[in-house]
Amino acid sequence: MSNDVKIYRITGLMLIAQDKLPRWQKFIVEVRALKPEHAIEKVVSEIGGRHKVKRSNIKIVKVEEISLDEVQSKYVKDLSTITYMVI
């Protein structure tokens, strides 16, 4: 695959259960992207879709580029080590 794709670890907070008892829940997500802006957009989109959280209720705290050795997500690690794909 392309060497331009990097792996980012994004740390942030999301507001859960606005109607009842609001609380900020911490999250850490690892994604592959070309730029940090693309990684943030992907994480915000995934969290919003999965947890029904509005974009205004998601706060990104830290975005860091990590090496393949530091990756904890099995999915991201497997996707990064693919040499070829048959469709």
Characterize the overall form: elongated
CATH class placement? Alpha Beta
**What is the level-2 CATH architecture name?**
Roll
CATH overall fold name:
Ubiquitin-like (UB roll)
Helix/strand/pairing class, anyone?
alpha+beta
Number of domains: 1
Name the average pLDDT: 91
Helix percentage range: 25-40%
What does the oligomeric state look like here?
single chain
What is the string of helix and strand elements? Answer: EEHEH
Q: Indicate the low-confidence ranges by residue numbers.
A: none
Counting DSSP E segments of at least 2 residues, the number of strands comes to 3
**Number of helical stretches of at least 4 residues:** 2
Q: Whole-number radius of gyration?
A: 15 Å
Largest sheet report: 3 strands, antiparallel
β-strand amount:
35-45%
Strand order of the largest sheet: 2-1-3
Gap from first CA to last CA:
15 Å
Please provide a brief summary of the model.
By secondary structure, the chain is α+β, with helices and mostly antiparallel strands. It has one domain: Ubiquitin-like (UB roll).
Secondary structure topology:
Elements: E1 6-16, E2 23-33, H1 36-51, E3 58-66, H2 74-80
Antiparallel strand pairs: 1-2, 1-3
Question: What this model shows, in words?
Answer:
This is Large ribosomal subunit protein eL20. Part of the 50S ribosomal subunit. Binds 23S rRNA. Keywords: Ribonucleoprotein, Ribosomal protein, RNA-binding, rRNA-binding. InterPro entries: Ribosomal_eL20, Ribosomal_eL20_dom. Belongs to the eukaryotic ribosomal protein eL20 family. The protein is of the alpha+beta class and 87 residues long. The chain has a single domain, classed as Ubiquitin-like (UB roll) (Roll). It is 26% helix and 36% strand. It has 2 helices and 3 strands; from the N terminus they run E-E-H-E-H. Strands 2-1-3 form a 3-stranded antiparallel sheet, covered by helices on one side. The longest helix has 16 residues. The chain is elongated and about 50 Å long.
